Structures are given as C-alpha cells and as structure tokens.
Amino acid sequence: MGDDYNTRYITQYDDTDATLPRHVTNEDVNNIITKAEKVIQDLQKTASALQDQMEVERLNQSSLTLEEEEDDVERDDDVVFANSYVDLGKVDTVGFDYDYTLVTYTNELLELIYDMALKRLVEEKQYPSEMLDAGLKFDPNFSIRGLAVDRETGWICHLSYTHKVAVAWEGRTKLSRQRLMDEYSGKRALNPTLRKKRLKPLNDLFSMAECCLIADTVQFFKDMNIPFCPRNAVVDILGVIGSTHISGDFHRIVAQHPE
User: Fold this and answer.
1) What is d(CA 118, CA 194) in angstroms, rounded to the nearest whole number?
2) Strands 165-170 and 173-174
3) What pLDDT, in 10s, does the model give residues 95-125?
4) Average pLDDT, the chain
C-alpha cells in the first residue's frame, strides 16, 4: 500500500498552515480535503486570536500596581456577587443567614457555648460533676469546621477528598492507621449510606463547640477509667448543644454584651 499511496498522494502537509496533501487524480476527494483544510485553518486562526487576547489580559492584570489592587479589594467589600444562573429580576425577597453573614463571632462566644453545654451535660444528663472542675475548656486550636464525628465510636474524623477517614482522634489521642483500618474494613472508607448514618459533619458555628466537647468528654472518661458508651455520649452532647441553641440563653447574653 505504501508505494501505491505515494504514487497517488503528494505529501506536503505543513501544520503551521494546515495544508493537507492532495490526491493526484481524484478531484472529488480534493474538494473535500480543501473544505476540511479551510475549517482547520479557521480554527487555528480563532485559537491564535484567543491566545493573543488572553496574553494581553494577563499582561494587563500583572501590570496593576499594589495601590490599585488594594483599591480593588476595598471596592469588592461593597459588591454583592450572585450565581450567574440566578435571575435576580425575578427574586422578590433576599434573606441573609445570621451566623457569619450578618454577624461574626469571636472565640469568646464559642467558649460560652462550650461552657453552657458542659453545664447542661452535668445537670441535665447526670454526667460526673467532676467534669466541671476538671479544667475542660474550648480549644480553638483543636476544633475546626469541616471535621466529622463518628456516632458509633465518638471519634473526631478528618475525611480526604475521596471520603476516606484520613485522620481520627479518640478524645485527644490521634489514632494509628491500623486502628482506622480495623474499624473501617481495611479501606478507611464507608459507602455513602453508611457514611451518612455514622458520620455527622461538623460544619457550622455550634459544631466547633460540639467537636471540642465530644473529644474532651471522651478523654475525661478515658483518663478517669470510667466505662462509657461512645454512641450515647455523642447523642447526649449533640443534644445539650442543641438545647443551648434553642433555649436562647447565649443569645440573650450576647445581646446584653455585644462587644
């Protein structure tokens, strides 16, 4: 086929001009090749123009001075960004979430939520009164949003982007990889149904206090050699955090002392 092909085609392909080889005798084939060649050349021109435009925009962006960038940041504070798929012209009412949207909070508030929930845990759930004198305090360096608590074990878990349990703490003790493998069937991963059942995301304001109080309660029981059911402890702590929220007690304190 090689010799026959060479006698019928003249290879003059140039990828810079997108010039395709022509058939020696068949003009119908050549007409099709000419049309294809034009399409390719048009695409190349369009791509080249877009690259030039992007390069110009990049150079313009990089030429911004530090003062101009600071001005942009200041102006952005007054700009409301919306999803481009939302037609705001058809929206009658716009609502804003209170927490971290209209109001920002300090660590002092998280400490207050933690302390109030701990007190409820002792007074309402009959947990050891010694917990109130054990120096348990909210730790902003331990608790972050984005973690999850395993309802079955009471472990505080950090999930990877593939939803595997990458790291976990039992109380304030970081667990070994082998413990994770043993608990999660050797893969450290749960199927979606089981993950939804066992893992509760800790992703809002109250979750940070929940995370810290769960870990501290588990650690207290371990240190004191008190037998306990992790699942019940998690349920109780989530319950007292919820009660603290619903009661409005800490809202009234904050209203009295907004500073």
Assistant:
1) 29
2) antiparallel
3) 877 666 777 777 888 899 899 999 999 999 9
4) 80
SS3 category, 95: coil
Q: What is the pLDDT of residues 154-166, one digit of tens each?
A: 999 998 888 888 8
Q: Encoding tokens for residue 148?
A: 């999850």
Catalytically annotated residues: 97, 99
| Closest by Cα among 39, 63, 223, 205 to 135 | 223
Q: What is the pLDDT of residues 170-210, one digit of tens each?
A: 999 999 989 998 888 777 778 888 888 899 998 877 788 89
Handedness of CA 115, 116, 117, 121 (dihedral sign): positive
pLDDT of residue 80: 63
Which amino acid, residue 70? E
The rounded distance, in Å, linking the Cα atoms of 3 and 96 is 75
- Backbone conformation region of residue 106, classed left if phi is above 0, alpha if psi is from -120 to 50, else beta: beta
SS3 call for 71: helix
- What does the alpha-carbon distance between residue 78 and residue 116 come to, in Å, rounded to a whole number? 37
* Residue that has been written with the tokens 């667990």 in this structure: 175
Task: Name the token pair of 93.
Answer: 């009412």
Taking residue 77's Cβ as centre, other Cβ atoms within 10 Å add up to 6
Kindly state the percentage of the chain with pLDDT values over 90: 33
Whether the CB-CB separation of 155 and 149 falls below 8 Å is answered with yes
Residue-by-residue DSSP string for 2-68: HHHHHHHEE---BTTTTBPPEESS-HHHHHHHHHHHHHHHHHHHHHHHHHHHHHHHHHHHHT--HHH
The whole-angstrom separation of Cα 200 and Cα 216 is: 17
Residues β-bridged to residue 85? none
